[in-house]
Amino acid sequence: MSGAVLLSTHGLTKRFDGLTAVEDVDFDLPAGEVRALIGPNGAGKTTLVGMICGRIAPSAGRIVFDGQDITALPAHARIRRGMAYTFQITSVFPRLSVRENVALAARRRIKGRAAVDRAVGAALERVGLPERPDEEAGNLSYGHQRLLELAMGLVQAPRLLILDEPTQGLSEGEVERVKALIEELRGDTTILLIEHNMRVVMDLADRVTVLNFGRVLAEGTPAEIHADAAVQAAYLGTG
Amino acid sequence: MSADTRRIFALHGGLLVLLFALHFVLPAYHHGNLARIMVLASYAIGYNILFGYTGLLSLGHALFFAAGMYGMALSIQYGGVTPAPALLAGIAAGAVVSGALALLALRTTGVAFMIVTLMFAQAGYLTILYFGDYTRGDEGFVLQAAQRTLWGIDLSDPANRYVAALILFAVCLMASLWLVRAPFGRVLVAIRENEERVTMLGYNAFAHKLGAMVVSGTISAAAGAAYGLLFGYAGATFASVQYSIFPLLWVLLGGAGTVLGPFIGTLFMFYLIDLSSGLTTAYMLIAGVALVALTLFAPQGLAGELRRRVWKGLP
Ligand SMILES: Nc1ncnc2c1ncn2[C@@H]1O[C@H](COP(=O)(O)OP(=O)(O)O)[C@@H](O)[C@H]1O
Ligand SMILES: [Mg+2]
Q: Which residues of A touch B201 (CB under 8 A)?
């Protein structure tokens, strides 16, 4: 499973005015791995993946994707190289239909109306949102908007899928579905998963990276992380 | 072709057929008005691509309208060319000017974008006044009937003029309908709704906005060139700020982000002013009240209300 390194960061740092949100992070992600990124609220997880996919400009450091330095590339060019990002704070197109939301994600890769329709239908089916594709996305419940985000990520058939807390606000059944989906993608798609639900992390992740105060605190298999005293302290320390 | 697509073509094609039929039945006064409205509505269609569909509020479209008008009129007056290459010159001028302005103005957003477009359009207006020896400034200059014969067709003749205006309008309407249903146009709408998300789907938002502004400016220039040619006159008024505000009002009234909205808004506003000025000298007051009422009761414009209440699939 662990192939060549698909993504790595070198000394990646982000400072917001006085606050250092991410500090000197060296991070390697082998192709095909499901990696969980965990850490207390405010640890810098969203900021770290934001720098990886180009939403946030780093203060220092480099990012290498598929053997090429992408630090200077704008976000859209990184996405075109095979990254997909699902937002923690859902960011769909609220006044466009569910179908059109996914179609926008699909059309960059897939040409032709019929082929796009098929891909959209399949993606909605996979995340469990096949009913009411003509509904405006803004009218969906919060959980369904998260599933829509996921469908928009999937339909891009990315090499690296970055999921920022995909199970937040989902019902038990929906969490199970998302887990099954990630299982299905395992091997074909490299996944970087930010997740608070430890059960999901333990069940899915090949390896876990723990971030605390913007630094990498620990890295290892789920079992190793579970047993790590420093990690326990970090979580207990912030309640 | 899906049922929705058939209905869409029936509706928009139906309007064009109706306008052609009106050519044979309208009395001279309204016939002349409608020719003018169709050209101005083409201008509004161009404006709507940028404002209604892409969500960028420009206050400088008179620059593009005037670029088309003067590009056409100056090449006839001083270049001695015939109307066909003159029209092309006007359209090309609009494409170049809108591309250049886009490269500057798209570095900004929101209010700054409005101000930058307004300033450049004002600079264009002053440039026309500055070269008054050639442009004749506010007074403008007339193109003689002999200079306005296109492929042997005299465009100063009202019947020919109506048909020419209808052809321009039909091309603009159908181009805009095609554009907003095509993948490129869908990305423009998505930019209007949530630009960051568009970027994170792998689209170059800047390139799409640049494209939108050039298409918008070029259509506006085509309308300006046609206006000058069909009505035989070019003047600096058409480059002034009110000609940047007009398409905004027409599009807001008719329905921003709808294909038919620009025509409906232009028609409505034209006759609102025409009818109220027949009744009273305070006609601007009547027009103003009607506009306020519309913003209160149909905030999405006439075609926008139609979409909201009757047919959600209206493009
Ligand atoms: N745009 C910003 N401006 C200033 N501070 C920010 C910004 N974004 C995040 N932060 C701060 O950076 C820290 C890390 O935030 P974030 O990456 O969202 O954490 P996480 O996703 O791990 O909860 C937090 O203290 C947060 O307040
Ligand atoms: Mg976060």
A: 76, 79, 104-105, 108, 152, 156
Q: Give B222-242 pLDDT, tens digit per residue.
A: 999 999 999 999 999 999 999
| Tokens coding A25 | 């992070």
Nearest CA in chain A to B188: A104
Measured CA to CA, the distance from residue A191 to residue B151 in angstroms comes to 64
Instruction: Using alpha carbons only, give the angle A174, A239, A162 rounded to the nearest 5 degrees.
Output: 40
Give percent of chain A above pLDDT 70. 97
Where do the domains of chain B lie? Answer: 10-244
Is B61 in contact with B42 (CB distance < 8 Å)?
no
pLDDT band (50, 70, 90) for residue B1: low
- Determine contact: A49 vs chain B, CB below 8 A: no
Chain centroid to CA A53: how far?
10
Q: B215, B194, B218: which is closest to B205 by C-alpha?
A: B194
Chain B residue whose CA is closest to A91: B197
Number of Cα atoms under 13 Å in the Cβ half of residue A132: 11
Return the closest-CA partner of residue B165 out of B42, B296, B1.
B42
Instruction: Tell me whether residues B200 and A85 touch, CB distance under 8 A.
Output: yes
**Cα–Cα distance, A104 to A91 (Å, whole number):** 13
In this predicted structure, the answer to whether residue A88 has a pLDDT above a threshold of 90 is no
Scan for tokens 């008005």, then name that residue.
B33
In whole angstroms, what is the distance from residue B168 CA to residue B162 CA?
10
Residue A76's DSSP bridge partners are: none
Query: Would you call B198 and A104 a contact, using CB atoms and an 8 Å cutoff?
Result: yes
On whether any CB of chain B is under 8 Å from the CB of A120, the answer is no
Q: Which structure tokens are listed for B109?
A: 């957003």
Statement: residue A43 has pLDDT above 70: yes
B186 and A87 within 8 Å at the Cβ level: the answer is: no
Nearest to A178 by CA among A129, A140, A120: A129
Q: What is the pLDDT of residues B152-211, one digit of tens each?
A: 888 889 999 999 999 999 999 999 999 999 999 999 999 999 999 999 999 999 999 999
Residue A238 is predicted with a pLDDT of: 46
Q: What is the dihedral of CA B167, B170, B171, B175, to 10 degrees?
A: 180
- Nearest Cα to B292, choosing from B255, B256, B252? B252
**Per-residue pLDDT for A64 more than 50?**
yes
Distances (CA, A) of A131 to A102, A177, B173: 14, 16, 34
